[in-house]
Amino acid sequence: MSSVQLVLFDLDDTLFDHRICYRGGLAALRRRWPELRRHPWKEAVDVYDRSLALLHPLVLQGTLSSSDSRRARLRSLFQEAGLDPDPGTLREAETVYAERYRALRRVVPGSIPLLRSLRAEGLRIGVVTNHQAVPQREKLRELGLAGLVDQLTISEEAGAVKPDPAIFEAALEAASVDASKAVMVGDSWESDVLGARRAGIRPVWFRRGTEGPADRTVQTLRSFRPLARARSVILNPPRRRPGRTG
């Protein structure tokens, strides 16, 4: 029988399909402003990803608003195409992007059956996420996940950002569960896998095409389907290979 009592999940690109939403938003921008298609699709995605990696930490620190961060990312996208957008164009671009992003909001395939299955066994479900509280709670409600999650630990409220062990320790304390009885499932190698390890929690890397080292000591899932395999990986630690003798 599994000793797991608490299963923690990242939210963006683990339970919530952020990737399909933001790429849909970028595609909508390229339809509205054909000049943005001067560069291949992959280059546009790379530009946006680099801007996000640079600016999102400032949002987490509270020194930049989500709206200002989004406008800065959009400005970079236009500038890479040789355009100099005025404030009106940026406001329109933000609206076009946000409307498409919201229209595409969905859960990662297989996540809801997985949460229901784990809860049916009496396991506690938590979410540990780096972001501001309002948008993350909104996502859980809109996606139908709120009733399947027992606790939500958000960096803005916890005062710590993954991979800081403190945010994981806050989640453990909220559940009154020891780290040895918990599992963390997330898509980020640095934030979720290494962060969980530093807190003494067994990580499961949800590797949906994301980059990271080839570390065979970390259990990996590329999908929550089939359900039986996802459950098995989450609930059962890897078997230790017998040592050599002689």
Task: Walk me through what this model shows.
A 6-stranded parallel beta sheet has the order 3-2-1-4-5-6, with helices on both faces. Helix 1 (18-32) packs across helix 4. The chain is α/β, with parallel strands linked by helices. The protein has 2 domains: 6-17 and 106-235, HAD superfamily/HAD-like (Rossmann fold), CATH 3.40.50.1000; 18-103. It has helices at residues 18-32, 41-61, 66-80, 87-103, 111-120, 133-142, 155-158, 165-175, 189-198, 227-235; strands at residues 6-9, 124-129, 151-154, 182-186, 202-206, 219-221.
Number of strands: 6
CATH class of the largest domain: Alpha Beta
CATH topology of the largest domain: Rossmann fold
- Unreliable residue runs: none
- In which order are the strands of the major sheet placed? 3-2-1-4-5-6
The fourth-level CATH homologous superfamily of the largest domain is HAD superfamily/HAD-like
Order of helices and strands: EHHHHHEHEHHEHEEH
Span from first to last CA? 33 Å
Count the DSSP helices.
Answer: 10
Quaternary organisation: single chain
* Share of residues in strands: 5-15%
**Which structural class fits the helix and strand makeup?**
alpha/beta
Query: Any idea what the radius of gyration is?
Result: 20 Å
Give the domain tally: 2
Shape: elongated
Largest sheet: 6 strands, parallel
* Architecture per CATH nomenclature, i.e. the level-2 architecture of the largest domain: 3-Layer(aba) Sandwich
Approximate helicity band: 40-55%
Mean pLDDT equals: 93
